[in-house]
Amino acid sequence: MENDSKITINDVAVAAGVSKGTVDRVLHNRGDVSRKSREKVLRVIEELGYRPNLYASVLASRRQQTVICIIPEYSEGEFWELTARGIRSASGKSSSFGVNVSTIQYDQYDVDSFSSACSRALEANPSGVIIAPMFRVETLRFVERLRERGIYYMYIDSRLDDDGYLGYFGMPMYQSGYLCADLLTWGQPVDKVYVIRIARDKRGLSDPTVSRRVGFMDYMAENCPDCTVENVFIDPKDKDDIRARMDRLFASDGSPVKYIAMFNSRIHLVAGYLREKNIHSCRVVGFDVLEKNMEALRDGFVQVLIAQHSDLQAEAAVTAMADWLLIGKPLTRKDNYTQMDILNRYNCDYYL
């Protein structure tokens, strides 16, 4: 078509091989339409450039939709700040089509805070929920209640293995742990590696990187079976605790060469210790493009970062949820894995 304004419902119906009534039901997300017919109509709408008229019809229906995003609290410069930025970007675009997007934050170290956030989300009676899960059991209870109410939900950053989620946007967690182990050891014989872990909630209920850790351990078992993997737990809010535990790590044997990995975005805590002690002999691998992590990478205290655009992940999730709620547009894939980018000191400045 030369001009989008000339495209009519009849054009879409003819191209899709369905009736005008079927196209109308797809446009307004009502009535009984088979999945095959719905996908065919939506594909033709995209091909013919009918999308603006499609959203105009949604606006005309004056239906309001609410999407709630449940994510951890954050301070400036932390991982979840970038996620929140992506949510805000998508929210601005979706609001013009009658989709109201709001965020509820929780303390990732406090299961009661998470449960409270879930309760507040249910009280708002949303059409859809996007959730960053930290507490497995409580998350499964929450999504069961969502399913009972017919509320759609998606996962971002990490996901649980339940069957009801509409979509996931984030890294393939298991594979990222496997990759981390390979980048740490290069498949060479290593006697010992240290995994620095966050001492999370007191009841031990929060473990968002468990799948990444499984991938790491599987790689080590397959490729470095004689290697010892030692877990070192630190309190991210206590610098004295970090210093004391890292002191013990370096005093554990006479070698100044240590192989160190961290599965969340806090590798800068390790780098801070190495900088303070002026230690340059270690191989250190971490995750995510926080500025503190990037600084440590540039200065050689971290050798590799496995990076992801968490803002784009969040934006894509909100957009996909809005499209589903407005026009019933199905996701191309249920698990939308984002690429795992490998950064070192020579390419990191070109990533963001």
UniProtKB/TrEMBL annotation:
Keywords: DNA-binding, Transcription, Transcription regulation. Pfam families: LacI, Peripla_BP_4. One of its GO terms (molecular function) is DNA-binding transcription factor activity. PROSITE patterns: HTH_LACI_1 (PS00356), HTH_LACI_2 (PS50932). Gene3D superfamilies: 3.40.50.2300, lambda repressor-like DNA-binding domains. The keyword DNA-binding applies. Residues 7-61 form the HTH lacI-type domain. CDD domains: HTH_LacI. SMART domains: HTH_LACI. This is LacI family DNA-binding transcriptional regulator. It comes from Candidatus Cryptobacteroides excrementipullorum.
